[in-house]
Write a structure and sequence with these properties.
Layout: H1 3-58, H2 65-73, E1 78-85, H3 87-93, H4 105-113, E2 117-122, E3 127-136, E4 156-165, H5 167-217, H6 231-258, H7 273-294, H8 300-313, E5 320-326, E6 332-337, H9 354-358, E7 362-363, E8 380-387, E9 392-400, H10 403-411, H11 413-441, H12 451-468, E10 472-479, H13 482-489, H14 491-508, E11 514-519, E12 522-528, H15 532-547, E13 551-553, E14 556-558, E15 562-569, H16 576-592, E16 598-600
Helix pairs in contact: 1-2, 1-5, 6-7, 7-11, 8-11, 13-14, 14-15
Length: about 625
């Protein structure tokens, strides 16, 4: 039901209540007026009868009273009139004419109580008032009743009963009520018409405002208020429409511009721009906090830890692996994993990751056995590649238990990309610093560690080795007659000879061993957790393998030999630098005694007893 209908209904109800109340009041008023008029007429008639009878008695013509009473009875609207004598009067004068005794209980009650009794009788066609009035004896009135009656003061001598017809008054009241009701109905209709006419524009603009606000609540700001024809409503509508136009324009502009800060829009975009703006600002706020945090992290591993924390807590992913893929070398490295990498990753350019190769999501739910590197049939997986720089890609490998979970993860891939994109500058920066640090510790010609790395290793790892009692074998290696190569073939061929030595050394040692270019043509190898037999074995392997290498010098080739000095840490000394010096002494001894040989250090190589303590 509309408001206008409600207002009309309420007004009609109020008018109806007023109308009924007015009819009841008017009817009761007329009824009371008719009864009061009839009472006054009865009292007056009774007084006339009393006076007339008293006059007849004084004049001695009581036998003529019947005519008088009949004349009174013929008065207009008096339907019946009779006199009832009290027992005292009957005893003194008899029952009188026409049996002037009590005719009914009302007469008897009035004669007994001395109180006037009224009785109203109403039928469909007639209304009458029966009224019985007592006559009391008194010696103090205009006539002394005691002079004729044997009665006491105040004793009831008789009663006059009359029936008065008041039907004419009821008819008049009905006519008056009818006219009043008709007038009230006409007034009510007129009021409703006037109220409806003036109320309608306000109700219409109210409904228009309600519809516009409801549309705005549901995200539609294009609807406008209809002001109608009234000046006031037009003014209100104009102001509201102007405000709505500004809001619509501002919301649309914000909704468009705020998305430039996100890589991907949510798939669940609401038609309400306010909802979209609020959702986007929430995402931007969280992403900004993440950005502020990772910018102050010290190294790349911390950033990967942050991303992993997001995957676990925000994205509710339980099994995932973060992989660095070098697009130049093809080498892939697992930098973070929850349950271990489920893929067969080979660090060679010939074994490529499918997601990295096609630069697109690999989803097992789309096609079975999509990737040949994944062999766990009971699990589903998504591998998502993200480009960080020209040389580096990140591959997020997410493993799920079923297709429903994979679908959930696919739906949040865009949000994951927003965080990866936010982390990209920090990853590139930290990766560059990592590369620079590595370059500062790696010899560019050979790819081996350099003297700076040895200094850091001696400061951090060697004390740990001493505490853990982990021995190291130390080899000092030098190419025999290296200066002759530079002098004969030039420094380019000398550099090639150094590269050949470095390759032979790397191929002859374990992954836990550390090769270092100490300077020029000198190399140091730190053999992790080895004994004297192993150090001799590795040294001989390097020496023999290098002697077999052919070094190209333009149109000709040549071979060279090298000498090796070996020492055990901490058996020979608990100082890494002293051990390196001992290895250098052993190397010098090998060169002095024919070159192309391995010499293990012993104290007899020291030229005097003081040299041992001079380092």
């Amino acid at each position: 039901m509309s408001t206008r209908q409600k207002v009309t209904l309420i007004l009609s109800g109020l008018f109806l209540i007023f109308f009924i109340s007015m009819i009841i009041i008017v009817s009761l008023s007329f009824r009371n007026f008719g009864i009061q008029s009839a009472e006054k007429r009865a009292m007056l008639t009774a007084e006339v009868v009393k006076s007339g009878l008293t006059a007849h008695m004084i004049n001695g013509i009581m036998d003529k009273r019947l005519y008088f009473i009949n004349q009174i009875e013929n008065i207009e609207n008096v339907s019946a009139l009779w006199i009832a004598r009290s027992p005292t009067v009957i005893e003194q004068y008899g029952e009188g004419f026409n049996n002037e005794i009590a005719r009914d209980n009302i007469d008897k009650r009035v004669l007994r109580s001395g109180k006037t009794v009224e009785e109203m009788t109403e039928t469909a066609s007639k209304s009458t008032l029966r009224m019985t009035i007592p006559f009391k004896a008194s010696a103090f009135g205009a006539t002394n009743c005691m002079s004729c009656h044997n009665a006491k003061e105040g004793e009831v001598l008789g009663a006059i009963s009359m029936v008065i017809d008041i039907s004419d008054i009821r008819g008049s009241s009905f006519a008056t009520v009818g006219y009043t009701a008709l007038l009230a109905v006409l007034i009510m209709i007129a009021v409703l018409i006037v109220v409806n006419k003036f109320l309608k524009p306000y109700v219409n603009i109210f409904y228009s405002i309600r519809d516009v606000m409801l549309a705005a609540y549901n995200g539609n700001y294009s609807k406008r208020v209809d002001g109608g024809d009234m000046v006031e409503s037009k003014s209100v509508a104009t102001m509201l429409n102007s405000l709505l136009e500004k809001l619509q324009k501002v919301f649309e502009e914000i909704d468009k511009k705020v998305y430039i800060f996100l890589q991907n829009k949510s798939k669940n975009v609401s038609h309400d721009p306010l909802v979209n703006i609020n959702d986007t600002i929430d995402k931007l706020s969280e992403i900004y906090k993440f950005k502020q945090t990772i910018e102050h992290d010290e190294n790349l591993e911390d950033i990967y830890e942050r991303l992993a924390y997001l995957f676990k807590t925000k994205f509710k992913i339980d099994d995932f692996t973060i992989i660095e893929a070098d697009s130049t070398s093809g080498i892939k490295e697992v930098v973070y994993s929850v349950n271990g990498c489920h893929c067969d990753l080979a660090n060679s350019p010939d074994s490529q990751c499918r997601a990295d190769r096609i630069n697109s999501i690999v989803d097992s739910t789309i096609f079975d056995e999509t990737c040949s590197k994944f062999h766990e049939e009971s699990l589903e997986y998504l591998c998502i590649p993200y480009s960080i720089s020209n040389e580096l890609n990140l591959i997020i490998s997410i493993v799920t238990k079923d297709k429903e979970e994979s679908l959930r993860v696919r739906n949040i891939v865009g949000l994951i990309e927003d965080y990866i994109a936010t982390a990209r500058p920090a990853i590139v920066s930290k990766k560059l610093m990592q590369i620079l640090n590595r370059m500062a510790r790696v010899d560019q010609l050979t790819g081996m560690f350099n003297r700076k790395y040895l200094d850091e290793f001696a400061e951090t790892a060697i004390p740990q080795a001493l505490r853990s009692k982990v021995p190291y074998g130390i080899l000092m290696i030098d190419i025999d007659f290296f200066k002759m190569i530079n002098d004969t073939y030039g420094h380019d061929i000398g550099d090639e000879a150094i590269r050949v030595v470095s390759r032979v050394i790397k191929e002859s040692i374990r992954s836990s061993d550390i090769p270092i270019r100490f300077g020029g043509e000198e190399f140091i190898v730190l053999l992790h957790n080895c004994d004297k037999a192993h150090i001799k074995e590795v040294a001989e392997k390097i020496r023999v393998n290098f002697a077999k290498q052919s070094i190209s010098a333009g149109s000709e080739t040549f071979t060279k030999t090298l000498s090796v000095g070996a020492v055990m840490f901490p058996d020979d000394s608990n100082s890494i630098w002293k051990c390196i010096k001992y290895a250098d002494i052993a190397l010098y001894h090998a060169k002095e005694h024919g070159r192309n040989q391995v010499v293990c250090f012993n104290e007899s190589l020291l030229k005097n007893g003081d040299m041992k303590n001079s380092f």
